Amino acid sequence: MNFGCPETSLQQMHDLLQVVDTALKEISSRQYAGGELYVDALQKVLGNRKRRGPDSIFIVFEIPGKDAVKGRVFFMNGDGFVEHSGSITMLESSAYAINLINGDIELSNWCDSCESIAHYQGKFHPAVKKVLARPISNFVSKKISGEPRGAIIAFNYPDEATTYDADVLNSLSVVIGSVVTLSTEMHETESAFNYTIEALARSCEAADEETGNHIVRVNRYSELLAKAIGMGGQFVRAIASSAQMHDVGKVHIPSFIIRKEGSLTDEEMTIMKQHPHFGAKIIGDAPRLSMAREIALSHHENWDGSGYPGAVKREDIPLSGRIVKVADIYDALRSKRSYKPALSHEQVLAIFRSGDDRVCPTEHFDPALLRAFFKIEHKMAGIYADLG
Fold first, then answer.
1. Active site residues
2. pTM greater than 0.70 (yes/no)
3. Structural domains for the chain
């Protein structure tokens, strides 16, 4: 019977610390996803076939607000990588779920409690047995403390499950439980933050007739464009929530100017052109809002330097501002305003190709973004149709 060795235990502890370090970094940048953590943890600690480990692991958590638990079974393939099944849902009131969620460590080998392996199968939930698709000869289970509560169950160790296996599983449960709880708290904080940002973005619409889903659409267009030019996940996530802040400075512009039918006078235009500065001032210097601030300040700059407020041109305009400019103008052209009717998608495409009396695409837009726009224009039309 293999109880492990000091060198293996030390390596597994080192790998667990690596999992924690990586997970904490991903949580802090809002990239955490539970399944990714599980795969990483299991792969590092148990996925190497030179180490002792089970054939499969079931990780399950309570579903908040429902009398049910939900989880996945992770399998070890021949190369030591971890693959996972579809989700398994069970009533939390079932005897199997109660034992998992409320119990502590349990170590069980069929020969210690049953006359045969066939009789031993009666200990397990039918949904779990169906996914495993092979007889279970032993298991170790450990509850995962925190919110939500959960459990981790390892099946079919070679020979028999041992106290060494239980110690390793206990360490895994502590890591997973701690990170899941922290991630849940971070998610709640992030949700509150995003709610506040959206409320601030909508505040500028109080004086504007365009009170529908304009800011939601601009977020979605900007996310699409960022993906289309190959930006990484962190940038895409940031612009998908920051783009809505582009016109927050309009809260300081008199409503009679915003709602005016027809062209603005020179004096009124001078006042209107102050809203990027107002927006940057409202947003401030908080690090979490740095992209929102640069968008508010730069989304009216033009590629050729003819925009405002800084007459910045080309790559000196922040990329986020260049993206939101395309998104904002597309949506403005599609939408009815006091000074213009709504245009069809085909009409906007024609303007983005040839321009009109207000838009000159070759002078106003980043050429790379203009090319990206035409590759995904049908998706932008779909967003407007869904949220128009």
1. 250
2. no
3. 6-186 (3.30.450.40), 208-387 (1.10.3210.10)
